[in-house]
Protein 1
Amino acid sequence: MLKVLLVSYGFRCQLYSGFAAETDGVEISAVVEPNDFRRNLAKERFNIKEEMCFKSVDEAMAAGKIADCAINGTMDQFHYQTTMPLLEHGYHVLLEKPVTSDKTELLKLKETAERNHVVLMICHLLRYTPFYSNIKKLIDDGEVGEIMTIEASENVGVIHASSAFIRGKWRNSKTDGSTLLMAKCCHDLDYLCWLNNATKPAYVSSFGSRNFLAPEKAPEDAPLRCMDGCPHQETCQWSAYRDYIKSTLFSYYAFETIDKPYDEITIEERIKSLKTDNVHGVCAYKTDKDMVDNQMLIIQFANGSTASLALMLGAMKPKRDIHIVGTAGEIEGTFEDSRIVLRKFEETNYCTEQVFDLSGEDGVNFGHMGGDGRLVDDFLKMVQGKKPSPAYTSIADSVNGHLCVYAADEARENMTVVKVDSI
Ligand SMILES: NC(=O)c1ccc[n+]([C@@H]2O[C@H](COP(=O)([O-])OP(=O)(O)OC[C@H]3O[C@@H](n4cnc5c(N)ncnc54)[C@H](O)[C@@H]3O)[C@@H](O)[C@H]2O)c1
């Protein structure tokens, strides 16, 4: 049996461990989780022995080599400190994105994985979705010739924006470890570099601001908490009352501080929490968010090709769009539609159009449009010495996307163009 150590048992690890446990020859045999409630959940779900349940990575490392590989789903700011000991002790690691917000740490993780001859794979799951993996195949098959430009966008819907980046645990880069671009779009920078990996990113420029969801834009009569009698409670698009009491979309994020199975949290407990110590109950304009509301960036690649990404919080229709123009054709699509259009020059009618409908692909309606399950499968294949898929995201292959994020945030803050020392 291939033994897996879970490093944390939060939302992402609960998902990934489910996929791993369903794989033949794989056993979830140990867990590190400082939260007693979550550690016990893992213990019961996978019948983990008491002596294989730990409160810290150091405790687990002191127990010897207890598993073959680890899945690390800790929060952004803990990735480096929890992954380094795993690599040094010879564990193959599947690490959640973002790797780290510090360039030195990123390169150190890469060096440590290489020196210890272990797999360090990053959860850039978009690469595994039928949508992006088929786009990559069309590019690699030469269908659009040489890429000249890629235009991409990430429109974060109102409720997702609110529960994750305005009120949620990715709202403040200083305490939560990542800027908005890093937390939300290191995926997008990763696939932009991956799709265009005939070349490397060379320069980045970027603009963005926090001028809209800011305290001075709050209605004058809005109290600090939505449910403290805010007169806009029924009509405001950011109403905590509507998002977490009337509706339940994304509300699992809002009550994660209550150590109870989500379904058992009563309405009274929700209301009390939102009215007292829960940041999800605070007026969206008045949280301690330091994230930008919108950001745009342009990448100049070494071969002269360009890519742009537009990121915005609060879209009515959440979606990721992409439009790639090459020297012999173009590709266009919206991720959430699982549909790709390929257009090519044709002598008689000028242009042919071929549509690839991927909506029937296995697992496409679950877990990032099928990406989560395929990613875990690829990691386990790598660890078992099997050939990984073309989407395989080794640490070395994930560095350039992160370097573009660092460069874009530096360019935005300093209003400059930043050179990317890509590898
Ligand atoms: N790949 C994706 O598309 C995607 C989507 C969402 C989140 N994420 C990333 O996944 C990560 C986890 O997010 P989440 O929502 O599951 O977080 P979470 O808060 O639900 O889980 C994190 C867990 O880590 C535990 N923890 C804290 N310190 C620890 C330590 N030193 N050792 C072990 N465990 C520790 C916490 O108790 C908590 O249970 C984040 O980095 C996030 O950015 C990735």
Note: DSSP finds 14 helices and 15 strands in the chain.
Protein 2
Amino acid sequence: MWTNYRKTFPARYIKSGYFDQYIQRVISEKKPKTILDIGGGPQGTETLKGSGGRVYLLDPFIPHKPRWIYKKVGWDAKEKFDAIVCRGSINYLTKGELLKIKGFLKIRGFFIANSFLNPPPETWTERQYQTISDRIGIERFRYNRKKIVIEHELIPDRGGIIKHSFFYYSLSDYKKIFPGLKLMNYKNNSIILYFEK
Ligand SMILES: C[S@@+](CC[C@H](N)C(=O)[O-])C[C@H]1O[C@@H](n2cnc3c(N)ncnc32)[C@H](O)[C@@H]1O
């Protein structure tokens, strides 16, 4: 599923936006030498290209190393990093993986991620989507309160349905995992998480 992410997922998740500008601003100010891109996807997180730092990719579902990425690592990596970025990926991580993030940071290193504030309704919400190559489909999602996950489906006009789920974490979950976390709300339900070690 993830190797085809850029072809199959709605363009709204892929196109550069407010969070990308935020990442660029922080990186140009702090100039990290090493950056860990967690859940960077098949091409690595585009925003980190040309950031000046060495970018490492941690994404177990991507078998290859994009050419511009310095090194691919796993959750058992021994390296420590000046910066860690999760763009569109924090909600796929288990609590155990979230807890490992602090350990990957050098002292005064920082972590940036985007997420959402409130889960969607428990009944299915549907909307039309468009991919970056202008294919259309119906996107459906609902909150499964028992499992504390969001169930997500993409039904393209042609081709197979993509069904998957991701975790819901509340603000208090995030604050417990990252003490001293700074949170910024944008676009109603979107949040930026910023943590410095
Ligand atoms: C929505 S994509 C985001 C890709 C990229 N960061 C971007 O913004 O274009 C989510 C990514 O999270 C990755 N992912 C899912 N579970 C993960 C895990 N447990 N650890 C690391 N990455 C994971 C997937 O393989 C996928 O590439």
Note: The chain has a mean pLDDT of 97.
